Amino acid sequence: MRAVVQRVTRGEVRVGGEVVGRIGRGLVVLVAAGQGDSDVDAAWLASKITSLRIFSDDAGQMNRALADVGGAILAVSQFTLYGDCRKGRRPSFVDALAPGPAEALYDAFVARLRASGLPVETGRFRAMMEVELTNDGPVTLLLDSKRLF
What was the pLDDT predicted at 69? Predict the structure, then answer.
C-alpha cells in the first residue's frame, strides 16, 4: 500500500458539496492499495502512520506523534498513487488493486487507524472528492509498504 502523509492544521473532504470528513490539527493521508497488497500491508501502514514522530516539541524538533498533540487523521482513498507515468503521456493504473479488494483493504486500514484510539475521519471510496487542506510546515512524506528495505 502507498500513502502520502501530510501534516496539517486543518483538512476537509467534500462530495457533491457535502462535507463528509473534517479534521483540525493532524494528518491528511492519501492512501491506495496495489497488486499483491494484503491486510499485512494495511496493518503496517496504519501502525507506521499512527506512530510517526513528525510534530514539533517545545524545542522545535520533530519528536511528537499524533497522540501526543491531540491530533486526528483524515484518510482519503486515492488509487492514482499507483499511476505509472514512465511511458507516454497518460498514466497507467495496472498496478492499482481492483476496486472491490481495494475497498476492503482501505476499510481494514481505516479500522486499524481507529483501533489506535485516534479520531479518524474519511472521504468516500470511489467518489469524486474535493480535498482541501492547510499543510503545516510543509511536512509531506511518502510511505510504501513494499519498500521496507
Answer: 97
